[in-house]
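Reopening this ticket.

The earlier resolution said the output was attached, but the attachment link was broken on my side. Pasting everything inline this time so it's all in one place.
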Amino acid sequence: MRKLFISGTDTGIGKTHYCGLLCKYLLEKGDSVCYVKPVQTGYPEDDDRQTVIDMSGLKPEHAYTLNTAKFPAAPYLAFDDFPYENTIKKINEIKGFDWLIVESAGGLMVPLDEGYMNFDIAKDCGLETVIVVPSQLGCINHAMLNYYFLDKENLPFAGFAVNNHFAAAKSDKFNISILNDLTDNAVRSVFSDVMEFAEF
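Inline output:
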């Protein structure tokens, strides 16, 4: 089973949209897919699991939200006692799929509690990280900071997923080629309203 952790350079840059497109792409290839959202804040107004189901056609029984909180903030603020160990246990118990897609709540360094951050989920569940990058001014710096952090922590990096929805300036068309030049062709997906390119 290939196991991906979908994180991103910021909030609101298309992680859930990408998960929906990726699950749809994989299902259309004939692969079996399981989607997991370890923590959803701002719930039920925000429901990433349902968005992914609606976008991809994934069976509801193959999509899970493990922890929810109404307060729309980092888990560190939204939970009195975040159940980290139980969350890791539930993710590691998932078997029998070609793909496991785990969507983070925000970026790699979002705190879950005083002891754990989002990247710890990737580490303790053996997930390869995909970084969603909005193609806009400043994205190269943000993408490369994530890239170097994963390398420093010895965490498997599966590649960048570039969201062209944000491309506005003429220079934005070069963001993909710059990232590929700096990282030995690490852009694995390009998307906007549809999946333009995906390869893992």
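Reporter confirms the inline version is readable. The CA atoms of residues 95 and 173 lie 40 Å apart. The chain has a mean pLDDT of 96.
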